[in-house]
């Protein structure tokens, strides 16, 4: 217990004349609690602002396999998320490997993220408010957030592509058209 107590580092900013004290407690470099104590008369009220979790060590993290994500659309499509909310608990970016069959089409969407897509095989059609663009193997496209788009793979052999979303893809942020 004494070893644990010694590893707690506490920082204080006292504005006690105004009845406020900000306290930060760091535990073994694994987490940090930040709170504000407010004095009202002789009583003290404590507001915990946040607990910040920290990794024990900073080093590369191997993600041994992707997570399979269920796809929207008229036919089954394979989505393997390597980086993102599901597989790596990352909200800043998502990277997924997509494999869509011929004739696949998903509902239109107006997402809250930019999507960068590189086609590895086949053709991906990207419809937008002014028309459509056919993106072939070796090409890439950027769909900007807040722009309506609809993805499809109309050719018989479908398509394979990598999609990167900034911030990470989320169901709450994709805003799909009603079907």
Written overview of the protein:
The protein folds into two domains: 52 residues, no CATH class; 108 residues, Jelly Rolls. Helix content is 5%, strand content 52%. A hairpin with a 2-residue loop joins strand 3 and strand 4.
Chart the SSEs and their pairings:
Blueprint (H helix, E strand, L loop, with lengths): L1 H5 L1 E8 L4 E8 L3 E10 L2 E11 L13 E3 L8 E6 L10 E7 L3 E2 L8 E15 L2 E6 L3 E4 L5 E5 L5 E8 L4 H4 L5
Antiparallel strand pairs: 1-2, 2-3, 3-4, 5-6, 6-7, 7-13, 8-12, 9-10, 9-11, 9-12, 9-13
- Mind telling me which CATH architecture of the largest domain this is? Sandwich
What class would the helix/strand composition place it in? mainly beta
**Helicity level, as a percent range?**
under 10%
CATH class wording of the largest domain: Mainly Beta
Count of alpha/pi helices: 2
Mean pLDDT: 83
Strand content: over 45%
**Cα shape:** globular
In CATH, the topology of the largest domain is named Jelly Rolls
Largest sheet at a glance? Answer: 9 strands, antiparallel
Element-level helix/strand string: HEEEEEEEEEEEEEH
N- and C-termini, Cα separation:
59 Å
- The CATH superfamily of the largest domain turns out to be Jelly Rolls
Overview features:
179 residues; mainly beta; Jelly Rolls; 2 domains; 9-stranded antiparallel sheet; 4-stranded antiparallel sheet; 2 helices; 52% strand; disordered N terminus
Summarize the structure.
The protein has 179 residues and is mainly beta.
């Amino acid at each position: 217990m004494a070893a644990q107590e010694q590893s707690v580092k506490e920082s204080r900013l006292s504005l006690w004349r105004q009845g406020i004290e900000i306290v930060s407690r760091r535990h073994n470099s694994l987490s940090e609690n930040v709170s504000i104590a407010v004095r009202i008369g002789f009583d003290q009220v404590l507001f915990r602002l946040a607990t910040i979790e920290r990794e024990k060590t900073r080093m590369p993290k191997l993600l041994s396999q992707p997570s399979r994500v269920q796809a929207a659309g008229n036919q089954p499509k394979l989505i393997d998320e390597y980086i993102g909310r599901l597989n790596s608990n990352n909200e800043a970016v998502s990277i997924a490997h997509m494999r869509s069959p011929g004739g696949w089409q998903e509902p239109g969407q107006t997402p809250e993220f930019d999507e960068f897509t590189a086609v590895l095989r086949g053709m991906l059609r990207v419809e937008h408010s002014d028309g459509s663009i056919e993106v072939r193997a070796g090409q890439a496209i950027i769909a900007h957030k807040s722009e309506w788009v609809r993805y499809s793979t109309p050719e018989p052999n479908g398509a394979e592509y990598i999609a990167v979303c900034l911030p990470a893809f989320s169901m709450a942020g994709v805003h799909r058209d009603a079907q």
